[in-house]
Amino acid sequence: MQGRLVRIEWAGEDDYDLIAGWLKPLSPNAAMTADTREFLTPAKVKAANEDGNIRFFMAVTNDGERVGAVNYRPVNSSGSYSIGGIVGDWQKWSRGYGAEAFGLVIEHLFNGINAHRVEFTTAAYNKETLKILTKGGFVLEGVLRDYHYLDGMYYDRTIWSILREEFEEHAAADAGQFPVIDAIPAEDKDKARELLSKYLANDPPTSLRDFDRRSGRTRSY
């Protein structure tokens, strides 16, 4: 999926080292994502991605640089997903790469796999993510008090979500600036509809033609 600044593509074999390196303990990303106690290895990233527990996508700039990663995983009921992500180099934060990558994966969830609810959780000190969530159509659902410990202090964890109707409303409002790109172009769908209509106009054999005969069948024994 292609945006203005980045595209997202399926993480490959060479990307697992990158992701694990970006999230290593004591790294700026580990602090921002509140994963300072987690030791993530390339093997763990690969296993999670290939098992389907977490789907990882790379954020790639227009000149081919892999600047970050976004992911999603199913949670609880059908149609609910949790998302996460990072921009690997902290010097590239606040350039719009992360916001656009998040937008692309959210678009994929709602338009590609029929999501109903997408959620995101972040520490109350993460200004980069909060800048995205507070103007991206998300709704603050809750606050978990003193959930994270960093720099000698406790910080709250915030829980956000966006439902399908909220996504559609937000997407419609921003359609001029951020158009949704269809996986199959609209003109191709129109052509397929035209071909099918012409075929049906000639009263061809279809499953409906002999419906009465099939529905009236009885067992032969």
Brief rundown of the structure:
By secondary structure, the protein is of the alpha+beta class. 35% of the residues lie in helices and 27% in strands.
Describe the structure.
This protein is of the alpha+beta class. Helix 1 (15-22) crosses helix 3. It is elongated. The longest helix is centred in the middle third of the chain and has 16 residues, at 97-112. It starts with 5 loop residues before the first strand and ends in a 6-residue tail after the last helix. The chain contains eight helices and seven strands; from the N terminus they run E-H-H-H-E-E-E-H-E-H-E-E-H-H-H.
Topology, please?
Blueprint lengths: L5 E5 L4 H8 L5 H5 L9 H10 L3 E7 L4 E9 L5 E8 L9 H16 L4 E7 L3 H7 L5 E12 L2 E11 H10 L12 H16 L9 H5 L6
Parallel strand pairs: 4-5
Antiparallel strand pairs: 1-2, 2-3, 3-4, 5-7, 6-7
Helix pairs in contact: 1-3
Protein name: GNAT family N-acetyltransferase
InterPro entries: Acyl_CoA_acyltransferase, GNAT_dom, Ribosomal_N-acetyltransferase
Pfam families: Acetyltransf_3
